[in-house]
Here is the input.
Amino acid sequence: MDLKELQNIKQRYNIVGNCDALNRALDIALQVAPTDLSVLIIGESGVGKEIIPRVIHDNSPRKREKYFAINCGAIPKGTIDSELFGHEKGSFTGAIGESEGYFGIANKGTLFLDEVGELPLSTQKQLLRVLETGEYIRVGGQEIRKTDVRIVAATNVNIRKAISEGRFREDLYYRLNTIPIQMPPLRDRGEDIVLLFRLFAMQMSEKYHFPRIQLTENAKQVLMKYKWPGNVRQLKNITEQMSILSNNRTIDVDDLLKYVPMNEESTELATIQPQAGGSRTYESEREMLFKILYEMRGNVSDLRREINSLRKQIDEGQMTAPSGRQLVEGGTNMPVAYRNNMQSMDYAQEIAEPENLNIAALNKKALEMALERCGGNRKKAAEMMGISDRTLYRRLKEFGIR
Here is the structure.
């Protein structure tokens, strides 16, 4: 591929960088695009693997057909087969109608299966059959259906290790890996890091109409030496943080080290330092969030005890109106305002019960904080929160977090 064609592709898909590994990946994508061979894109989370299948589809004979990108790790295990292969009416609870599934809808087109390493073994078996014969069966059905779909898959896990542990089928790996494409991690892209920083800083400046941040030469060297465990996604997050929070528009080494680790060779993620004068620091935002939740539950418990005490006084006829008369619940001498107050107490009692305390918003905020802290790396975020990868993916879908 000549240089002019390569630059046209980069401009069309807003790809920034000139490192040899990136150019090689784009070159392979363009060479394999006219064929129907399966492609497996390998690379760490956040390196931009989703660009390659789009390049392949748009430069293939299928470019006028449908293209779907599917995150296999975000779909619950119980519904993944239905999502991919469709289902018959009444095949399971909630199946009120038929569903084509992605393989049916995308016939003649392209399917991008991201995080294919997260597929259950039973689904892997059906996927292998589709790749080999183009045949599949809907959930709850018996009719063999045909489809003509181009498969491009991607993974950030060590597939060979998954095979040795029995979590991934070896025959499916070789079927998907007809044409492998390796996406380089950001730490291996040299001066591309500075180019990407400049792009993200310019985007923030144009979007929010404030002066663009720039790096000193020494800061550029620190930026290129850091290992970037969250890759491009992490660099984008840090650039946006500095664009908003930094008082200086020219970022020197001291400014930069507030957002990246002091050890330039570290693969740890940086934390934003607390404001000076604070009375307390926290190990992480997650610890702070759970502390707030704990204190909130204590306040709710106090409120519930007060309400119970007031209700007890009312039940025993011990509360008095301003006129000095005792109030008897249900009595004709109880003023309307007091009856309304009692109804308000009933409502307060209801919302004060711990089991009715809605913590969905807090869970969502904890998940967003963990993802931001991990530079968008879902596996690291799951480890930070003490949950499994699949639970994290389920919560991402539940809360609508992309």
Notes: The first helix runs from residue 3 to 12.
